[in-house]
Design a protein that fits this description.
By secondary structure, the protein is α/β, with parallel strands linked by helices. It has helices spanning 7-11, 48-57, 72-82, 87-94, 118-124, 152-164, 171-175, 215-225, 228-234, 261-267, 295-306, 316-329; strands at 61-67, 95-101, 107-109, 115-117, 132-136, 144-147, 191-192, 205-210, 238-243, 275-279, 285-289. The strands form three sheets. The protein has a five-stranded mixed sheet, with helices on both faces. Strands 2-1-5-6 form a four-stranded mixed sheet. A two-stranded antiparallel sheet has the order 3-4. Helix 9 (228-234) packs parallel to helix 11. It is globular.
């Protein structure tokens, strides 16, 4: 049951710059108030097999939405997407949406019969950001996972991808666009990754996946990477960038056939650009940012891997709270959306 989304065209409005030829993500300031869920979210008994069956009988798909109190990105996805006058009714008509609390104690029964609390399920599924979305279509396992916040324009593309059942085409193929004569945003810190020998470093690696004319990529460089405190953290890494619009096959990985940058992004299941993949000194991935974030979360991720905090604290959200508390103790103002 697929309906083409004219929403994508209607929503694609915004400013244009020399490097970005598409609208960039904008978030609404969040006061910290209670985030009210839309009335049409499903009041579920949290038996996922039953929820899947009921959604199918209603001609819908199932969407599980992880959130937490005080989350500005959750507030934004509710206000800008779930309550959007165009996108909201479309989601309501085509998805049963179930909201789960990242720290919640309600019990959920999975299709295989396993029973877990909300917070235990978040750990099992390695939910590191809120919001996180799990889309179900015709199988008892999620067909697509989206970590972190997406603008309403990007979420419309994601929903279009889910409902179209794009077999053999990864989401990166949908969202990466090429612009003639466009260039990557200039960076003194990130070198262009062209061959595997550049990965041979004694430092941990920070690999940034982006493409020319990408407004969110430009925004990340301007608002986050250009900051002195971010640059100081990046100095502890070998910082490399990948142009995912480059069609030249390269040997990015050891013992692998040459592939294009977009194919590598697909291999890593990246669903958002820019994405940052962080690897330790042994070149093992330790964390990734595959969503829209601002400086607080970006810097926290850099610390999380470089300082090996993941060894004592596997849940990034708990480290986020710890980091915020430590900054407040030094009387620093903590604004996680700047």
């Amino acid at each position: 049951m697929y309906k083409g989304l004219v929403l994508i065209t209607l929503l694609m409005l915004g400013a244009v710059s020399a490097y970005a030829a598409e609208p960039g993500t904008q978030i609404i300031n969040y006061s910290g108030s209670v985030i009210e869920e839309p009335y049409w979210f499903k009041d579920s008994f949290l038996d996922i097999a039953d929820d899947l069956q009921e959604a199918d009988e209603a001609g819908k798909n199932l969407l599980i939405y992880f959130h937490q109190a005080g989350c500005p990105y959750c507030y934004n996805i509710v206000q800008q997407s779930f309550l959007d006058p165009q996108l909201g009714p479309f989601i309501q008509a085509n998805f049963d949406v179930i909201a789960l609390n990242l720290w919640g104690d309600r019990e959920i029964t999975l299709p295989n019969g396993e029973v877990l609390t909300e917070k235990a399920l978040a750990v099992k599924w390695k939910v590191q950001f809120t919001p996180t979305l799990f889309f179900y279509t015709d199988k008892p396992e999620p067909s697509l996972r989206i970590d972190g916040y997406r603008s309403k324009e990007m979420l419309a593309k994601v929903i279009d991808y889910v409902m179209s059942g794009s077999e053999g085409q990864y989401l990166a193929q949908k969202v990466v666009r090429s612009e003639a004569n466009a260039a990557l945003y200039p960076s003194h810190r990130f070198s262009l990754l062209n061959e595997i020998s550049q990965l041979k470093s004694s430092k941990p690696l920070a690999v940034l996946f982006e493409y020319p004319a990408c407004a969110d990529c430009e925004q990340l460089h301007k608002a986050v990477i250009s900051r002195k405190d971010t640059d100081q953290l990046l100095a502890n890494y070998t910082a490399l960038r990948v142009d995912v619009s480059d069609q030249t096959p390269r040997s990015y990985l050891a013992n692998q056939q040459p592939m294009t940058a977009k194919q590598w992004a697909d291999h890593l299941s990246l669903t958002y650009f820019p994405s940052l993949v962080l690897l330790d000194e042994r070149k093992q991935e330790r964390f990734r940012i595959d969503s829209y974030v601002q400086a607080f979360h970006f810097q926290a991720a850099l610390e999380y891997v470089d300082q090996k905090i993941y060894q004592r604290e596997p849940e990034f959200q708990r480290y986020i709270n710890e980091r915020a508390d430590n900054l407040r103790k030094t009387e620093k103002k903590v604004v996680i959306t700047e």
